Amino acid sequence: MGSFLAGRAPLAGVAKPGETRFVDAVHLAINTIMPNDFSYWETIDELVQQEPAGAGDPEILGQLAAVGIRKGHRFAPDQRLREILEEAVAVGNATARTLSFAPRESEGFTYYPGSAWFNMLWPGGYEFLTPPPEITAEGVRQSPSDGARKLNSRITFFYPATGITPAMCMRLTGIGSQYLMASKDANGEYLDGARSYRLHLPPDIPESRFWSVMVYDRQTRSMLQTDQPFPSLGSQSGTVEQNPDGSTGLYFGPQAPPGQQHNWIQTIPGRGWFPILRLYSPLQPFFDKSWQPSELEPHNPGSD
Question: pLDDT band for position 221 (50/70/90)?
Fold first, then answer.
């Protein structure tokens, strides 16, 4: 997701035919966020010029050709077109951001009724066309399709993410992975890096591999950069403490609540954020919604 991937790339030397060249990806900052000014179009033009003519989708290449981006031609918009393209990038970025972090109820992204937790893949599946099939005791029941691509769902997914697989939204127990994200707290307010929150995970978290909660920067859509090595906790962290009843309480905020250092993810004042709850090899209680995480409750760190 997003940008600022760590890596150190020793690029010296080129692999010979039949050889494999290893590129170490440690300690090098790489920005993978597309620009949101006119240089966006210059980046797209560079890509079109570098790739073979048949490498792109003809529909998209046709749209780019309409604004002067064509394979083998110089991209040189006049002042009028340049202003139009600059505005288009700003509007497009704002639209994608709004769809991603303020989805409307009518989009069908909400996973639990009245909840802030959502997943944009369910209305149209990984191709954003047909909802994933129902898996029943009688067999697979295909979901109906209206034939329309769910464009808002696709935008909401690919604005913060870069890759997709059918396993992300199939209703198969013990296979693949499931993701829930939220951008607002229990009061419907956007998550604020200067405030503290608590998340309650009931007992028997429905996974057969592992679970995690990871925090992302709402601006870059990358993992939030904090003083902690990783902005995440989960069953593989080795430090998360359960409550006596088997439930788990996680805390988010600039400082850890007293006694909750092992169950705390740091946030940064002035930075918006959003969490993703990940269940690997999910179990039936996730799909039938008999298991449900709490909303992100505003929390006074000294109240426990």
Answer: very high
What are residue 272's phi and psi, to 5 degrees? -70, 155
- What's the pLDDT score for residue 25? 78
CATH numeric code, 39-101: 1.10.3360.10
Given a cut of 60, whether residue 79 has pLDDT beyond it is yes
Tokens of 176: 């693949």
Domain 109-298 belongs in CATH node 2.60.120.600: yes
Name the segment(s) of the chain with CATH classification 2.60.120.600.
109-298
Strand order in the sheet with 177-181: 177-181, 273-282, 207-217, 232-234
Residues of the chain with CATH 1.10.3360.10: 39-101
CA distance 175 to 187: 34
What are the residues whose beta carbons fall under 8 Å from the beta carbon of 179, sequence distance 6 or more? 119, 168, 276, 277, 278, 279
Q: Tell me the helix, strand and coil percentages in the chain, rounded to 5.
A: 20, 20, 60
Q: How far is CA 191 from CA 12, 130, 262, 269, 270, in A?
A: 44, 31, 21, 11, 11
Give pairs for 224-229: CB < 8 Å, separation 24+: 224/266, 224/267, 224/268, 224/271, 224/273, 225/4, 225/268, 226/266, 226/267, 226/268, 227/266, 228/265, 228/266
Do 278 and 212 form a contact (C-beta atoms < 8 A)? yes
Q: Residue 175 corresponds to which tokens in the numbers above?
A: 């296979």
Q: Which of 164-168, 169-173, 253-257 has the highest mean pLDDT?
A: 253-257
Residue type, 239: T
Q: How far is CA 118 from CA 156, 160, 276, in A?
A: 11, 14, 10
In 3-state terms, what secondary structure has residue 273? strand
Per-residue pLDDT, averaged over 227-250, amounts to 96
Token pair for residue 119? Answer: 């997943």
